[in-house]
């Protein structure tokens, strides 16, 4: 199994015919993703050849879904048009929309997140690398060749750290890796992914990557304490961030002691999460926990 994305997922790409859409559609296809169509009203009725795989272009998301049975959309749409693109996907009833676009205005993100939620469309992102269930499907920009299928679930605010932990733990492999994005307003949260991994019988351990700013990790810690029975390993980016300086994602805003790496680490450890000081140490903690006998955590 996997969460949110499987080998049976049928993927369309909004913005497929743009430079980024073309590049990453080719990579998704090479990873085994069943990309069944692109969406561009100005190129409707055309086809694009990707190394021998012909992908049709549709004029709208409803048309693409009706024709192909698509249940996932990946959006490579410029920021000014992202709100309209997500709204169209939600109106069409797409179950999952993966919004890769960076630089979307916060007021647009607030609006389309609420709109999609009311229509039962799960949003991943925006400003995220997407998600991958290795050996099954890849929706977004995560490199598919740095890990393999396995029994670790990964949820991360940071794209770069997603890739690093995937590589560090490549010998074990992953059920699904989800990059949720680091903007102030996102769709799928740490808690959403934790709940899904807890319910997935093929995920034995969860790696959660957070960063300074906000209180998402503290809320996740409370959820882990109350609801998660599987071992969780964590890492918080930003321990060395200079005090009083805005860094990283737009969501990495620290107010007083709230949102600091130390506060997040303390909250997670209080919930029983093993927190690494570096990504490499975090991977080592995961390996140790996976090697421990059942019922006898290391």
TrEMBL record:
This is Succinate--CoA ligase [ADP-forming] subunit alpha. PANTHER family: SUCCINATE--COA LIGASE [ADP_GDP-FORMING] SUBUNIT ALPHA, MITOCHONDRIAL, SUCCINYL-COA LIGASE SUBUNIT ALPHA. Heterotetramer of two alpha and two beta subunits. Residues 4-104 form the CoA-binding domain. Keywords: Ligase, Nucleotide-binding, Tricarboxylic acid cycle. Substrate binds at residue 163. SMART domains: CoA_binding. The active site is at 249 (tele-phosphohistidine intermediate). NCBIfam families: PRK05678.1 (NF004230), sucCoAalpha (TIGR01019). It is an enzyme of class 6 (ligase). Pfam families: CoA_binding, Ligase_CoA. It comes from the Bacteria. Belongs to the succinate/malate CoA ligase alpha subunit family. CoA binds at residues 17-20, 43, 100-102. Pathway: Carbohydrate metabolism; tricarboxylic acid cycle; succinate from succinyl-CoA (ligase route): step 1/1.
């Amino acid at each position: 199994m996997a969460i949110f994305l499987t080998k049976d997922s049928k993927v369309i790409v909004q913005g497929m015919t743009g430079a980024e859409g073309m590049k990453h559609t080719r990579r998704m296809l090479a990873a085994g993703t069943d990309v069944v169509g692109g969406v561009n009203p100005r190129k409707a009725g055309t086809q694009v050849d990707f190394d021998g795989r012909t992908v049709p272009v549709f004029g709208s998301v409803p048309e693409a879904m009706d024709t192909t049975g698509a249940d996932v959309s990946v959006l490579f749409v410029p920021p000014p048009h992202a709100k309209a693109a997500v709204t169209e996907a939600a109106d069409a009833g797409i179950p999952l929309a993966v919004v890769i676009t960076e630089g979307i205005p916060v007021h647009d993100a607030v609006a389309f997140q609420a709109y999609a939620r009311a229509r039962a469309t799960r949003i991943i992102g925006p400003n995220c690398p997407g998600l991958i269930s290795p050996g099954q499907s890849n929706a977004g920009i995560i490199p598919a060749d740095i890990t393999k299928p396995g029994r670790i679930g990964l949820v991360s605010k940071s794209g770069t750290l997603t890739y690093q932990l995937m590589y560090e733990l490549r010998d074990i492999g992953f059920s699904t890796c989800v990059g949720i994005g680091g903007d102030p307003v996102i769709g799928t949260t740490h808690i959403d992914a934790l709940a899904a991994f807890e319910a997935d019988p093929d995920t034995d351990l969860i790696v959660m990557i957070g960063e300074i700013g906000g209180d998402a990790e503290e809320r996740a810690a409370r959820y882990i304490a109350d609801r998660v029975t599987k071992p969780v390993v964590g890492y918080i980016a930003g321990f060395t961030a200079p005090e009083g300086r805005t860094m990283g994602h737009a969501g990495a805003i620290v107010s007083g002691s709230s949102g600091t790496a130390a506060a997040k680490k303390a909250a997670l450890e209080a919930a029983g999460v093993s927190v690494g000081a570096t990504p490499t140490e975090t991977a080592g903690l995961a390996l140790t926990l996976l090697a421990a006998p059942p019922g006898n955590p290391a």
